[in-house]
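Q: Joint fold for the lines below.
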Amino acid sequence: MQLYSYFRSSASYRVRIALAWKRLDHDYLPVHLPRNEHHARGFAELTPHQQVPVLQDGDQVLTQSLAIIEYLEETHPMPPLLPADAAGRARVRALALNVACDIHPPANLRVLRYLLHDLNVGEERKDQWCLHWVQQGLQAMERQLARHPATGRYCHGNQPTLADVFLVPQMFNAQRIGCPLDALPTVRRITDACLQLPAFADAQPSACPDAA
Amino acid sequence: MQLYSYFRSSASYRVRIALAWKRLDHDYLPVHLPRNEHHARGFAELTPHQQVPVLQDGDQVLTQSLAIIEYLEETHPMPPLLPADAAGRARVRALALNVACDIHPPANLRVLRYLLHDLNVGEERKDQWCLHWVQQGLQAMERQLARHPATGRYCHGNQPTLADVFLVPQMFNAQRIGCPLDALPTVRRITDACLQLPAFADAQPSACPDAA
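A: Joint structure:
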């Protein structure tokens, strides 16, 4: 398998964790987003989607981090990243989608570029925008995790799941942009627990071959 | 089952299609988003997520449209909304996630409110913002659908899938905001084919009990 990744892309980090958790050998192929390598001809021919991560498995070219990880879960079920029961799976997927659909997209690189270059909002209001969505989204995660009886050492019980795979990269992003984390005790506790696992720690941005 | 929905919410429309496709009886409980009923105390107690759709199945309170539909697929597999093979499932999920993660979130109600009330960009630039993300996202969908040998009468082969369930509500939104559709022949052809199916047509916004 070949993984096209950018070290700072939190969607790429999700797939790096899943590959590490399932101990799947792969080549790491860096795609430098600030230099627009995802729009370069060769990459656009591989994937008209023109985003990272992309996972190539034989002749399959897989896009969208959640679809890639669900594919890995189906083709390499052990060790699992989803619980066995349908209700538990729904809760774990919903927590992951909180990150994928609500927190991450407004602070995406192409959205920030539009704010700066098309709406001319300036750096300060661009940074406030990022903080707003990340802080509001992580507070919603905190409410959902702190109140729920299924929350354990990790987001769902005492084994890491898809929910943790999405939460931890988002927390790296939150720290990078200076988001206050004081009001997020459950989210922080779970993140710390995850980072004691090699699959989460070894896949972090600073450990990537393309890290500056 | 009880579905909490707002007629114009495209995420709610996705779940309405899935429930209709699988012929699952349910009560329809309207939540009026412009009147902020999703932040009202009763609803916030049901779900700290404070968004529609919510599906209640016995004592399970399910959030996030994709997680809800995956749950319905697992608990009521027939008729299916995912193909049988892992590669096909990955393609269908990636197409659905293009809508859920890339096209829909920047044009979400709370994002538009922030643009208007916090960034004061004005109505015209807010409308351009919406058009930009919807148009760019649907063009990416068109490239992925038009070029791929697995595209059939629907997004993936000749049976509707999760990808169609996400595409059709996005096309309703695109039409509502006046997005030009000329350059999207494949996307339009598939949408028209879906709307010939009662599950897609009967779940459309104007057919909902809370439609104006």
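Q: Anything notable?
A: The first helix of chain B runs from residue 10 to 21. The beta strands of chain B are 2-5, 27-30, 54-57, 60-63.
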